[in-house]
Each structure stands twice: as structure tokens, then as C-alpha cells.
Amino acid sequence: xxSAINESGVAIRGSSNNPSIITSGWSIxxxxxxxxxxxxxxxxxxxxxxxxxxxxISVNTFTNGSIGCSIVRCSGITASWxxxxxxxxxGLEFADxxxxxxxxNTITSSGGVGILVDGSSGCNGITLxxxxxxxxVEECIHAYNNTYNLVVNGATLTASANTKAINLxxxxxxxxxxxxxxxxxxxxxxxxxxxxxxxxxxxxGSASNFKQAVICIYNSKQGMTTNNVTMSGVTISGxxxxxxxxxxxxxxxxxxxxxxx
Length: 261
What we know:
Elements: E1 10-13, E2 27-29, E3 32-34, E4 47-50, E5 53-58, E6 61-63, E7 67-72, E8 75-80, E9 83-85, E10 90-95, E11 101-103, E12 106-107, E13 113-118, E14 127-129, E15 132-133, E16 141-143, E17 147-153, E18 156-158, E19 164-169, E20 171-177, E21 180-182, E22 189-194, E23 198-203, E24 206-208, E25 213-219, E26 225-232, E27 235-237, E28 243-247, E29 252-253, E30 257-258
Parallel strand pairs: 1-4, 2-5, 3-6, 4-7, 5-8, 6-9, 7-10, 8-11, 9-12, 10-13, 11-14, 12-15, 13-16, 14-17, 15-18, 16-19, 17-20, 18-21, 19-22, 20-23, 21-24, 22-25, 23-26, 24-27, 25-28, 26-29, 26-30
């Protein structure tokens, strides 16, 4: 039963303290990893790789579990052409990782988010290209806790009711390029900046049928200024506003906020 599963289906872990334990140059390809539906223990992930470098996770199918595939404290990892469905928390996670990428993955359902970029210290240099994400209870993509240099390129993101397709929390230096955002008349916004300093460039692609705005900004950290948020070359339809901002506790918008329908 789901309650009896307390570990990952696959766990590959190197060591930050012992360099003789090497997890580099791996190819994890063509596997089907099935976990129980809604396990009670968060450790019941489909796959976790930790302290791995320069490896490929490709053409695998991840079903159910707490997380489909979790990539933790890694660098140079490419996750591509994988299929994800049925996880509780997220389909794919990058945690405290750098210079990693997601390419052409498909996430069709998640009880939480599609792709989570997070960690205790945050990620740097994560690139998401060509991913197709739908059926998530929360955001398609959620970047959190000091994530830097995030690129989302050529994705198709279908947001669920009252959510945002991309939620950026305490995130800096983000490029959104040629992404197709679909709100289907029920989602709130394409992009949310939640207590971010700004530095977001959205170029190309499209945003359609969101209830509130293309970009929402919320600030509550006293003294914070969000600046350098730009949108250009984006095809907009069925969205009432380009920008919606809520500023609390002495927070501000800078002079370079260029978001118009």
C-alpha cells in the first residue's frame, strides 16, 4: 500500500565529502518508474539524484509518487523527453542545483506544481526548453528561494483555475522567451513576481485567456523596489491587463516597468 513506501523508486547519490564516490557521466534512459498513488511519505519519489554531474535523464516515464524526479545539488544534468503524471508535489524538481536543463519534457498531471526550482540556498543557471505542462493543481513552473538566471524558452504552459502559469518567488534574472501561456478563461495570470527585485524579460510567444493580467507583481518586503520588468513581442488575447501590481509595507515599482497590452 501507499503508506508502506518510504523510499524512492530509484536513488543515486554521490558525496560532497568523499570525491571517490563519483556520480558523473551517467545515462538514465528508457525506464518506466511507477510509484504508489498519493504516498503518505514524501520520501517516496520516483527518482532522486543527488551530487551528480554531467549526466542525462531521458525518455523515462514517471508515474505517481511524491515527486516524479528530484535533482538535488547537481550540475550539468539534462532531463529530456520524459513523461510525468500523478505526483503529489511536483513532476520535476531542481533543488540547489546549477547549470542544469529540462528539455521537451511532458507533464500531464500533478497534485502540486509541474516543475519546481528551489532549495535551501537556491538554484543558478537552470534552463527549461520546450516543456509541455498541464493538469497541475498549482503553478506549471514555480521558482523559489533565491533562484538566479532562470530561462524558460519555447514551453507550452496550460494553467489551472485561479493559478499562475509561472510563479517567481524571491527570484532574480529571469528570461521568458517564446512561451505559449494558456489560461483557458480560468487561470489568474501568466507570470507572478512575488517579492522579486524584478529583472524579468518576457519576449515573444503568446498569452491568452487569463482573468487578471499577463504579469502580476506582489511586494511585501519593506523597502523593496521591483524594477526592469519588460514585455515585448508577445501576442495577447483575452487578458484584461498587461500588469497588475499590489505593493504593501513601503514597497515600490521602479522606472523601468514596460508591460502594456
